[in-house]
Write a structure and sequence with these properties.
Chain lengths: 226, 226
DNA sequence: ACAAAAGTGTTGTCCGTACACCCATGT
DNA sequence: ACATGGGTGTACGGACAACACTTTTGT
């Protein structure tokens, strides 16, 4: 068998919805290369753990965040992407609910922060590229899978869902049509609780019914929002 | 840095359209494990080549096939997927035109064959899983990107395109609606050549105009066939 | 003349889109 | 009473789906 000395790492693009904006979780590197640069959380995979376990472990260690949705994004393996050794990074795309937000938490001396996606610092390695791909995946996926709910609290206002879509898709959405469409899917439960968000008429809380969604899925239903 | 001894491989699911059926390119392994089993073409990545280069090289070495379309599919890294060592495999999804079909060609003693997707042998490792994922990707992608043309000869009959869609999507398609839809995209050129396919009225040849397609893409056009 | 495949139009239905006013509360 | 955000219905147009007969060739 060929001698091969390529390292395998995982990196995660973790999105959170905070202060009516899309945010990404970044860590400040405390070792070279790119010391003191901001980077995606991640690290080398251990000999006997699955790729997914590696991501979960690294996220826990470096940021203390627990994600609510995760899927593989893409693998990056250009020979020079890491100046030290050849490293192939399997990257993941993840979403967290606000309750799982961790303003700052780490066992290492690294800094951890949520960055508004509009105000990103320069990133280490090819992490900028990875992040852009993740953003596109999020925008796409939002239109054909109900993953937006993994960015909101369990109980949320319809207007929150609507704003989330507008901010992530970067376009205006008609309130009436959006509500009609989403409600027609029959995957939300309207709760009997109202919330007064500052001034204005109190709004109803809704909850995503995952069971219902999967049931409809099996029957051929397709989530689809343009 | 942590000691890590994980190997990185690439594997390719290469689809071809042959004898009015969807086919996959498989090789017969001539070394353990899974000696004499059929498997996806692939192998370890060399120290200084990109992942894509590795796929192209392995395909050339093992099958002599040149692909017309290729994209990354998914990475598989379960600790026990290879009984010898830990191997993370970055898999690729590829399409070849009939002209680039190679009935059998190899520098190794391996056997190489096209298999009708309906009549597959048992596959080595987790290659069955990989293949299923690739098939889903193909079915999906066919509906929103004009990749079907990478499975046909440069000049083709409309009925071929239609059959290809029916076979891959495993459903009936209305001839008139399909033709109307595709032609409305303005990405095909009708040639002045007719072909007599056995009996029946001779049919016109068409050609995919890639430039036209990219031009329309930029202007916001979306290829979309249900 | 018959069999085989190619080519071609119309109509109804449904879904997406555009659009404006009243309601309930806080200040 | 006013400002703020929440909640709701209708009408138009375009796209999709269903559907059958004529044309051109080979035998």
């Amino acid at each position: 068998m060929i001698r091969q000395n390529i390292k395998v790492a995982v990196d995660a693009v973790v999105f959170g919805y905070k202060d009516k904006a899309l945010n990404v979780l970044l860590i400040k590197r405390d070792i070279a290369p790119f010391k003191d640069s901001w980077a995606l959380p991640g690290g080398l995979v251990l000999e006997n753990e699955s790729l997914e376990d590696a991501v979960v472990r690294e996220l826990k260690e470096e940021t203390n965040v627990t994600v609510d949705y995760m899927e593989q994004l893409y693998s990056f393996g250009a020979p020079k992407r890491d100046p030290r050794n050849r490293v192939v990074s399997v990257t993941y795309f993840a979403l967290v609910k606000p309750e799982h937000h961790t303003i700052k938490a780490d066992t290492d001396a690294n800094d951890v922060e949520w960055f508004n996606i509009q105000k990103l610092p320069e990133l280490a390695f090819d992490h900028q590229t990875i992040l852009e791909m993740a953003k596109k995946r999020l925008q796409n996926k939002l239109t054909y899978e109900p993953i937006g709910f993994d960015l909101l609290n369990d109980k949320f206002l319809f207007s929150d869902l609507e704003k989330l879509y507008m901010i992530i898709l970067e376009k205006q959405i008609d309130r009436r049509n959006f509500r009609k469409k989403i409600l027609s899917f029959n995957i939300l439960e309207e709760l009997d609780e109202k919330v007064s968000e500052g001034r204005g008429r109190p709004a109803n809380l809704f909850q995503f019914n995952k069971k219902q969604y999967f049931k409809h899925l099996k029957e051929g239903f397709l989530f689809d929002i343009k």
